[in-house]
Write a structure and sequence with these properties.
The protein has about 160 residues and is an alpha+beta fold. It has 2 domains: about 5-25 and about 80-160, PH-domain like, CATH 2.30.29; about 30-80. About 40% of the residues lie in helices and about 25% in strands. The chain has a 5-stranded antiparallel beta sheet with strand order 1-2-3-4-5, with no helix packed on it. Strand 3 and strand 4 (about 90-100) form a beta hairpin. The longest helix is centred in the middle third of the chain and has 27 residues, at about 55-80.
Amino acid sequence: MPYEWSSEPPHHDPDWQLSLWPYRSLLRKDFVLFMGATATLVSLPLITLLGTVILWGLLPFFLLMLWGLWTALNISYKRGEVLEELTVDETTAHLTRHNPKGDTQEWEAKRYWVTVHLHPKGGPVENYITLRGGDREVEIGAFLDAGERLALYDDLKRALRA
């Protein structure tokens, strides 16, 4: 699961923290291996053209393809650099979201009034989870898949009840 509790739920300790992040199917070291393997496989047909003028005609397109692939994967990787941290103590619940561009969004409410809501349909994603407390309602874990959001919803309900 791409989220981690400071201690396993249900919590017997009133103070706990939950950290959530998007799932990464391609780690940075795997990114380098993928780019190397792609460059190698695509350049194999070019070996037969060594010493010909045709190689110089195809080489810019080969380099453009590698640059485009690298740029697209890098942009995708940077957009996924999101971290949400929910910190709960005896009196307050505090949610901090660190966005990919470096800005931070924060929400805080009295713990007693915080409720977890599941929106199976009608939200931006299936099984959309929100926290409501005070005068605001905020999303949590929208980048998780539908099954992970269901598990998170159950865990959050149990943890906030404790």
